[in-house]
Design a protein that fits this description.
Elements lengths: L2 H6 L2 H10 L3 E4 L3 H5 L7 E2 L9 H6 L4 E5 L3 H12 L4 E6 H5 L3
Parallel strand pairs: 1-2, 1-3, 3-4
Length: 101
């Protein structure tokens, strides 16, 4: 376990926990970035669209794992969705999330 894991928790364990709960993955990168590679089955909702699509995301009635290139944009999206009462986590970079699927 690294120092960041001890300070912030193990993201891999959280991803596995959410995966076990039937979570869906939302990738908040641009469509072009998404097309260059993504988690199988992930939905692409770019960060600038997240606020306008909260009701659509809530309608999925599933926990959400958010990802992007490095974790910055997915962190912003996680904050937005949590404020709306949506059960979600920041999975970080899509390649890390992909290693769990």
């Amino acid at each position: 376990m690294g120092i960041l894991d001890s300070l912030f928790g193990n993201k891999g364990e959280k991803i596995e926990e959410y995966k076990a709960k039937g979570a869906m993955v939302i990738d908040v990168r641009s469509p072009g970035e998404f097309q260059s590679g993504h988690v199988k089955g992930a939905r692409n909702i770019p960060l600038p669209e997240i606020r306008g699509r909260v009701s659509e995301i809530a309608h999925y009635k599933k926990p959400i794992i958010l990802c992007c290139a490095s974790g910055g944009r997915s962190g912003q999206a996680t904050s937005i969705l949590k404020k709306e009462g949506i059960d979600c986590i920041n999975g970080g970079g899509w390649m890390k999330v992909n290693s769990h699927f």
